[in-house]
């Protein structure tokens, strides 16, 4: 969706829904039988994500300001090690538990002190700060896989595309802040394809350009 320039205001939004279901090998043609496992979803399966950008330039020649909002409902955490809470306790090492913020009751995993079944026995609530783990006994690799926790990320920038109002040569300047709230969040976790990635922490950049 796009908003044409209206008195210096422009905006657009991109929305997406992705279903990425993988099927194991099949035997036969029409009415084939699935063999060797069950249907599962890989880590770029996501129910909803959107990016909205708004930019305002009050004068045709002058500075502008831009704002960006990104929302992700959460990619599938496709690794079998994060199927549900008990499995996470048994299968993840201390660093991996700490990375997702695994907790039970008042106990939180650290790189030097992982959670164990003995520590978490009878402790509630339990889960992970950066993952939505399937409840015990409800994990389904197709219908109810564990996912990265939903997140909202915000960026902002301000700039001037023609600092000195040149005719042939132009100077531009742009200041940008990424992840304004400095949110800690995962992009993916133990991905089969790319491992584990966190979103970019808050960062500031300045760009000076010369156009000819």
Characterise the protein shown here.
This protein is mainly β and 212 residues long. The protein has a domain of 116 residues. It is 8% helix and 44% strand. It has 3 helices and 18 strands. The chain has a 7-stranded antiparallel sheet with strand order 1-2-7-8-14-15-18, with no helix packed on it. The chain has a 3-stranded antiparallel sheet with strand order 10-9-11. A hairpin with a 2-residue loop joins strand 9 and strand 10. It is elongated. The model has no long low-confidence stretch (mean pLDDT 90).
Along the chain, the helix and strand elements come as EEEEEEEEHHEEHEEEEEEEE
Shape call: elongated
Largest β-sheet summary: 7 strands, antiparallel
Give unreliable regions as ranges: none
Cα separation of the termini: 33 Å
Lateral arrangement of strands in the main beta sheet: 1-2-7-8-14-15-18
Total strands: 18
Q: What Rg do the Cα atoms give?
A: 23 Å
**Approximately how much beta-strand content do the residues carry?**
35-45%
* Mean pLDDT score: 90
Structural class: mainly beta
* Helicity level: under 10%
The DSSP helix count reads 3
Topology:
Layout: E1 2-6, E2 9-18, E3 21-22, E4 26-27, E5 33-34, E6 40-41, E7 46-56, E8 64-72, H1 85-91, H2 94-100, E9 102-104, E10 107-108, H3 117-120, E11 126-128, E12 131-132, E13 147-148, E14 151-160, E15 170-178, E16 186-191, E17 195-198, E18 203-211
Features:
elongated; 3 helices; 8% helix; single chain; mainly beta; three-stranded antiparallel beta sheet; 212 residues
